[in-house]
Amino acid sequence: MGRFTRRWILPVFYLTDHWISRVGLWLVMSAVVLWIFLTGASEASGYLGILQFVALPVLFFAGLALVPVGISLQRRREAPDHHLHLPARIEWGNPRIQRLLVFLAVATGFNVVVGGALSYRTVRYMETTNFCGTACHQVMGPEYAAHLAGGAHGQVRCVDCHVGEGAGAKIAAKWNGTRQLFLLLTNRYSRPVPSPPHGLKSSAETCENCHNRAHDYGDRLWRRSRFDDAGERLDTALMMKVGRIHGAHLGRGRRIVYRAADAGRKAMMAVRVEGGETYGGAGSGGFEREMDCLDCHNRPAHAFETAERAVDREMTAGVLPQKVPQFRRAALAVLAKGYASREAAAEQIPAALLAYYKQNAPDAMVLHRTELERAGGRLVALYQQNVYPEMKLTWGSYPRHDGHTDSPGCFRCHNEELKTKSGQTMTQDCESCHKVLGVEEKNLASLQELGG
């Protein structure tokens, strides 16, 4: 055993005779042991996933880097003929050198296998929605929650829309992530998280991987309901000419370039139709961008509602009471109040709803107290889905542009301010985009005919 130790175990001491090398080897072995114990953990396991797929690889490669640093420092400190270290002159026929090379080859093979597995799992994990949403919990928490509740796009990975294809796109994304990490650590990140168009991938790289630009979507029924103070349902219905709208803006051979005055694209300075007219153009500044799907469908995921939309949707679905007098008015009044935190809102909203009825409709509170108490809890859920005071994110912080109810939307371009040299403006004829079937009508006959 003594001879075996001298021949094959002593090479280990070449690597660990300095305290820095010992620390490095300890980090490597600790990372490997923890990785083995955590093997099988789900990539959706929150902070445990960050530990396994991010922290452990960092420890492993940091440890590997420290080992040669310690060896170099030890060689400078010790005599050249020290029995644990390499001789001053390297001779390939020297048995000590040969045994060290065999050991290094075996150790390198082990490190390549473990390091490769760790690197692969790390890259794969960093492309998961869980990593994007939980690594910076407070900052991306609202976006993560909205994404999971995002309907048809709730199962689409963040990287499919925000990174793009190819090694260059991935490297750029990781560099941008490093910058964002620095902003997080220095508490200099924006509140709420901005959605600038400069960093957007084009719809050709994202949306059009699933949606065909050339497809004719025809006409689609759009409807929205709300309830008046007496609990009567009022319906608005439009037959949207979706195929015509898409063709006019993104049809074959159609190219539109606009100049926006602000990063939110809420105001346009000029619109140029390639091969056609230019509308506006006065003034300077702003930025130019070629129009695509994301200029109207600007919240295909991470959608946040206005209080009106949220309450109307829940009342229409029967989740919130429909027949309780003044309920819509009361709910909007309660949700519009400022609350110090989400926890404070959870405590105060139910009480605020009852207080409203006690002051404005005491008879209704007596008759419908159970419904109101249950509705208070649901209003808390709506508030917490859309409002995050710590991120300065409130109702309407992210307006939707696919229409003109929550924001100017279509009228950013279709208005009286943007004109050609001859004074022509873009059409504002309602019938060019939709046929109005009814606006806030009771028992809307058109919906009855369509089976609505």
What does this structure look like?
This protein has 452 residues and is of the alpha+beta class. It has four domains: 2-125, no CATH class; 130-189, no CATH class; 220-302 and 400-450, no CATH class; 307-391, no CATH class. Helices cover 48% and strands 9% of the residues. It has 15 helices and seven strands. The chain has a four-stranded antiparallel beta sheet with strand order 5-4-3-6, with no helix packed on it. Helix 1 (2-16) crosses helix 4 (95-125). The termini are far apart. The mean pLDDT is 82.
Main attributes of the structure:
alpha+beta, 9% strand, 15 helices, four-stranded antiparallel beta sheet, 7 strands, three-stranded antiparallel beta sheet, single chain, 4 domains, 452 residues
Look at the helices and sheets and give the structural class: alpha+beta
Order of helices and strands: HHHHHHHHEEHEEEEHHHHHEH
Q: Return the domain count.
A: 4
- Helix count equals 15
Bin the strand percentage: 5-15%
Strand tally is: 7
Rg? 31 Å
| Shape descriptor | extended
Average predicted local confidence, pLDDT: 82
The percent of residues in helical segments reads 40-55%
**Unreliable segments of 5+ consecutive residues:** none
Report how far apart the termini are.
Answer: 87 Å
Order of strands across the widest beta sheet? 5-4-3-6
User: What kind of sheet is the major sheet?
Assistant: 4 strands, antiparallel
Short description:
This protein has helices at residues 2-16, 19-38, 47-77, 95-125, 129-134, 137-148, 158-162, 167-185, 242-250, 307-316, 327-335, 342-360, 362-367, 369-386, 445-450, and strands at 220-227, 233-240, 256-260, 268-273, 278-280, 287-290, 434-441. With 452 residues, the protein is of the alpha+beta class.
